[in-house]
Every structure is written in C-alpha cells, then in structure tokens.
Amino acid sequence: MSPDTIARWQFGITTVYHFLFVPLTIALSVLTAVLQSLWNKTGNDAYLRLTKFFGRLFLINFAMGVVTGIVQEFQFGMNWSEYSRFVGDIFGAPLALEALIAFFLESTFIGMWIFGWDRLSKKVHLVVIWLAAAGTFISSIFIIAANAWMQNPTGAVYNAANGRAELDSLLAVILNPVFLTQWPHTIAASFVTAGAFIAGVAAYLLIKKNKEGAKDADLEAYRKGVKLGAWVLIVAGVCTIVTGDLLGKQMVTHQPAKMAAAENIQDPQEAGQTGFQIIPGVEVFPGLVNWLYGSEKVPSIPEIRDNFTAKGYQIWDGTAFVDPDNALQTAFASELAAIKADIDPIPSVGANFWSFRLMIGIGCLAMLGGILLLAVTRGKKIPKPSALWTAVCVALPLLPLLANTFGWIFTEMGRQPYIVNGVMPTLQGLSPINVVPVASVWFSLIVYTLVYGILAVIEVGLLLKYIKMGLPDETAVSVKDEAEPLSFAY
Amino acid sequence: MTIFEAAAATHGNFVLQVVWVILVAVLWIGFFVLEGFDFGVAMLVPFLGKGDKGHDDQARRVVINTIGPHWDANEVWLLTAGGAMFAAFPGWYATLFSGLYLPLFLVLLGLIVRGVAFEYRSKREAATWRRSWDWAMAIASFIPPLVLGVGFANFIQGVPIVKVPTDFGTEIPVVAATIVAEGNPIMALLLLFTPFTIVGGLLFVSLFLAHGAFFIALKTKGAVHERSQQYGNILSIVAAVIALAFVVWANLGFFGKLDAKWAGLENYNVQIIPAILVWIVGAVAVVALALAWFMNSKKRDGWAFISTTLAIAMLTVMMFLHFVPGLGFANEINLTNVSSSEHTLTLMTIAAGCLVPVVLAYTAWAYFFVFRRRLNTTNIPALTVNTQD
Lengths: 490, 389
Prior knowledge:
The complex is a heterodimer of chains A (490) and B (389).
Chain A: H1 3-42, H2 45-79, H3 81-115, H4 122-151, E1 156-159, E2 164-167, H5 170-174, H6 177-211, H7 216-254, H8 256-262, E3 276-277, E4 283-284, H9 288-293, H10 301-311, E5 315-316, E6 321-322, H11 327-338, H12 349-376, H13 387-413, E7 418-420, E8 424-425, H14 426-429, H15 438-469
Helix pairs in contact in A: 1-2, 1-4, 1-6, 1-13, 1-15, 2-3, 2-7, 2-15, 3-4, 4-6, 6-7, 6-12, 6-13, 7-8, 7-12, 8-12, 12-13
Chain B: H1 3-10, H2 14-48, E1 50-51, E2 54-55, H3 57-67, H4 71-88, H5 90-99, H6 101-121, H7 127-157, E3 161-165, E4 171-175, H8 176-180, H9 185-190, H10 195-219, H11 223-253, H12 272-297, H13 301-323, H14 342-370
Antiparallel strand pairs in B: 1-2, 3-4
Helix pairs in contact in B: 2-3, 2-4, 2-7, 2-10, 2-13, 2-14, 4-5, 6-7, 7-10, 7-13, 10-11, 10-13, 11-12, 11-13, 12-13
C-alpha cells in the first residue's frame, strides 16, 4: 500500500471509531438532561431512575469518546503535516476554539455531574448537566465547520508568499452553505442514534422484566423510555432526511463529482431525466434525482472529467459548469490544471454509490424499527419475549451507528481526490515520507486498531452488564453528613 | 533589520505572535500543573493503595477519587495547547508533530489507556479486573511525563531542522533526526535521548510524583493521608535534587548557545533580561521544591501543594524562556516565520481574551467550592455492581 493509503486508512479507522461514540455523547447528554429536568419538574422517581440508568450508560460511552478524540486533534500534525501547514491559518482556529469553549465546558461539568449528586443542590445539578450538554453541542459546531470547510473552502485566500491558505472572512466560513446544512444533518443523525439506543434498550428491558414479573412502577418507567426514545428517533429521522436533502443540493453545486459518483451517472443526461439507481444500472423514476437535488441536470462522470481537463476545478450551477465561488478554489484552478494528467477528478464510484445508499437505507430501517416498537407497546401492551424482539431491540441501537459510519465514508471518500476540495490533492497533504516513514504509520495503525479493538470488547461488555441490571432503585437524594459515603464514586 | 521589521516581512504582527507564544506557554503551564498531579496520583495508586494487610481496594478508591471529577478537564489543557499551536503557529505544529511522531504516539497511547482505566476500573468487582486497571493507569500515567520531559529538554537543546524538497516543488523544514535516521522510526526516537534530555524526563516524572503525593495529602483523611505525606517527603527531595541539576545544566549548558540563524532575532539570546530571568525562575523552582518538602514535614498539606505548583510553573517558564525565539528548534524556524496571519491571530486573541477567564472561573469553582472536601475510606460507597462476575 502507498503511504497515503495507509495514512488514510488510519484516519478512516480512528475517525469512524471515534464517531461511534460521538453522536451518542451529543444527543444522549441532552436526553439525559431532559430526563433529569422531567424529574425535577414532576418529582416522579421513574424519571430519576431513568436519568441515572441512561446517565451511567452515557458515561461508559463518553469515556471512549474522550480518549479516542485526543488522537483526532494530533493526527493532523502527525500524519498530515503538509495539510496542516497549508490550512492552519483557517483550520487550526476551530480546533483550538473547540477545545477552549466546548471541551473544557463538557469535561468540567460532566465531572461535576457524575460526582455532584450530593454536593450540589438539585437545581444547580440540573444546570450542570445542561452545561455539559451545551459543551457537546458547541463542539459539534466547530468540528463540522472545519469539515465543511474541507468540502467547500469558503472565506479563504491563497497567500503565494507564504504558500498557504489564509483566512479572509470569518463570516464566510460560518455562512458556508455546506456547513449550514451539514451541521443540522449531523445533529439530527445524533438524535436518531440516541433515540434508537434508548428505545432499543428500554424495549428490551420492558419485555424481559415483564416476563420476570417486575413491579408496575418499573414497567411504567421502561415504557416511558421506549416512548421517549422512539419518538426522538422518528422525529429526528424526518429531520435527518430533510437536512440530508438540503445538503445533497449543496453537494451537487459544490462537489458535483461526489454526487455524480454517488448516483453513478455514467452517461450525459437529458435535462430533468436523471433517474434514481437502486443498484448500478437499474434506474427508477426518471427525473427523481433532478427533483431531489433541485438541479435541471446532474453532470455525468465523463462530462466532469472532460471539463476538468479543459478548465480545472469548477462547480455546477444546475445547468452548466461555472467558475468556483470562492477565492481559494479559483486561485488553484490553474495549479490543478497543471497536474491534470496525474489526477482523476472522480472519487471511487463503488464506494460512494454504496455508502450513500446504505446510509439512507439503514437510517430508514432504524426509523421503521422505532415505529414498530411504538406500535407493539402502545397502551398497556407488552410483547411476549421471543428471538424476534430480542433481535429488533439489539439491532435498533446498532443501525444508526452503521448509517452514521456510511455517511462519513460517503462524505470523506466523496471528497477525493482532494483533501481540500478543488484545492489540495490528498497526496500533497501527507507528512513527507522521509519524515514519517511508512513503518511508523503502519506501526501506529496496527497498535491503534488493536487497542481500539480491545477497548470495544470491554466497552460492549460493560454496556451489556449495566443494561441487564436494569433500572437502579433510586429515590430522591438526601443531603449527607461529611463522613457518610458519597452517592457516587469510582 | 529589527525584530518588528522581520516579523512584518514574513507574516505580520510581532506583538500578537509574542502574545500567542505566551498563551501557548500558559496552556502548557496549566496542563503540567493540573494534569501533573493527576499523572502523579495515578502513578501512586498501586503504592499508596495498601492497608495494614497489604492490598486495600478502599484505599485505592480514595486515591483515584481525589482526581475523579478533574482528570478529564485537566487533559483538555493539552488539547487546547495543541489546538493553539496549530491555530497560531501552523508551521510549528506541522514540523513538530510530524517530526516527533513516535514520542507523540506514545503520549497518546498513555492518555487513551489511563482515561479508560479511571472510568472502567470501578465498573466490575473482580480483584483481577481492578488490579489490572490499577497497573494500566499507573504505567499509562508514567509514560507521557517521561516522553514530554525528554521532549521539552530537547527543545532547550534546540531540535535541528533541515529543509527537504517535496515532490510538489516546495521546500519544507523538517526535524533533521528523521532524515538522519533514514526512515527508521526507532532510530529517530533514540536520537532524542541525550544525558541532558534523560534528566529532563526524570525531572517531569519525579516532579509530578511529588505534586501528586501532595495533592492526595491535601484531599484525603486517614491512613491514605498519612501515607501520601510519607511518600511526598521522599519524592520532593528527589524532585528538588533533579530540578537543581536540570536548572544548572540547562542554564549553563544551553542558554544562548544556539546558532542564532533566525533573521532579526540574533540579539535575543544575548539580551540580559532573559539571561537573568532563567536563573531567577530556575532558582525559585528549586527553592519552592525545598519549601514543599519543609511544609510537608510540618503537615501543611496546602502549602506543600502550592509550592510544587509554583515549582512546576516556574520550570515551565524557564523552558519557554530558553526556546521561545526558535520555538524549540535550532535553526530555520522561529516564532515570526511560522505564525498565522495577523487577521487570524487578532480574531483568536479576542476569542481567547473573552473565554479564558470564563474557563478559569468555572475550573476554580469546581476545585475550590464543589470538590473542596477531603475524602476518607468511609466516603467510598459500597459497590453498587452485581456480584455476577
């Protein structure tokens, strides 16, 4: 494998792995805060028990998100030093601010929430979990802004004297249309993930504990969990679809090659005639793709290649190729034209076509699962335990994780052959191979994969153990004497 | 050419560049002071967690719980320092992080393992599970300070840089050791070890151990409290001796001895103020460690901890005074030619000016109000986990 391939595998593995934990952290922190707010408001102990139960699962997951996140920030400098040197003036700031604004907030207040049950008043303790949740949200804003900039580098200029991109307009970076659609899409998908997690876990326990003859109060609490989770999943699912469509429209404009690969458009299309392919070559509903993307035509793969050879990188205005709408891509059009013989402007069609469809298909399947669980637990109903229900409850939390993974594979593979779309080819962003030899990257890739694999087994084991234990027997917290045990400790 | 003209000719505003070097130094001081004690605490877990009958899980839990609410936020100081280097000095971040690949990888691995260890240790009851995590957290907390100590001592020596051409027609400054090692990562790692840098590694380890012992003493009652004072007694003497050797060696051996190749900054190293300052802050650090030992022997836990805090801060200031003009490199790179644009630095300065005080305020609230109580074994709740495993 070539050095850039190994470095990309490392980035892919560490990022996808990290993002298994991130969406749960973002949305489960909010939903835990919601549960705790409901407890504060109603005084119903069912909500306290749900808060503690899902809070504990949240923390097991959060720890993994934290430790795998550290690798992400360092990896840019270690494996992608020339990318970092080139974009640092713009790309570094969101990472620094993410740490300063978001990570301090979430880590300090999550620590305070875990250990603060009997040291803070009920109200302050509630504020603390909301502040932690706010931290996770702010973090997502910065990191998605940074990623969206790689997809569509707005607000930057090329400084030839320094040989790098420099910030021109912060406002243009924030108003990047890709960011404005990608962020809500990511957040909505995070709520799908957390909703499915809560619904799946609560439904599993509802069915299991019902058979074991649990108290009515317990079953009622589980039922609340199923309802909350399933409704969050369904509503967030609809939001994911809507924002996904809006994001798709931006990609046709700013990354036409990504969408041409995702839709496998091999031949030039008539205006308004691009159909949706279920599998490669099997097209349904002529015009559906045009309608979805709000584009008269979606350019085909050969058209994009020809246009690249003739004019370098261009964007698509719905009917024709036009010059990029940002200074950085414009500045690099001629640079790219000079190396056009070495570069294919089309990303992998197979990877994009299938990751795109799997993302959508698996996401929709998760929504169906949510609807199914709502239907079978409506009123006072509780299904009899069976292999089918166990399978549904186990699969439900996993489906959004898969959909998220395919979503990122699509986003990042679709940006190829660039690391900064239309500006810097991925290969040029790599650390020089005489500085970071292939052996080093192989070594770190193997060790990360091994360590992450071991941690995955441990994490899943712990999650299962705490899920099976079910709701803790908690009632309201009392103020304690100094010498008495804490209500929580490691 | 003056410093200001040199800065303007390359990248922009010298004042902002200096502000950001200071801010990066502040973030590293925050990291060493805060994560320093939780490195130390975690290293001490297997040693302090003993009762009259040997291994004592309750005692270990007391030790771990002193840093329970804090370790994660302490680690964010490192992330912020890294982020600030990336944002304010992209060329520093790029050359350093790629050039020190394996050492940084070891630091990351340590941080991954220790974080998980704190969080997961208490989640099962089995003794082998807990003892395994205890050793994992101790070893994973030992490696990062060792590597960082060796690294910072290398910055004092000045890491040599060579310029290499890329396939894309540019020339970039890279860490010379990686080229000398000819693609052998182990060799590149070994080139970082000199007698002086090994002392640097030992300095960080001993300093954080003493700092950690005093933190435990400050935050606990009972047997753990007394044992941590005994450990602190020895550890602070060791740290003071190593610190003395390090300060004298660094200031006599390396201050102002680098080839000052960087344009406009030739005069920095012969300027009298930093030359005097490195001795003053170095002396304050050594005296503070001696004071820490004295205060601990008088059972003044708070003062002992404040003294090691001061020592760590002063040693970090000394190291930055040494390597600031070249940002730890011996040639080619300096703070004026790898910084971000004036525009970016201005925006970042505004953001940091507004937000750093807020972060400091709630961090202080966490330490001084919410978690100010001392812990004893009676505070540790019974295991809430099932006995099924």
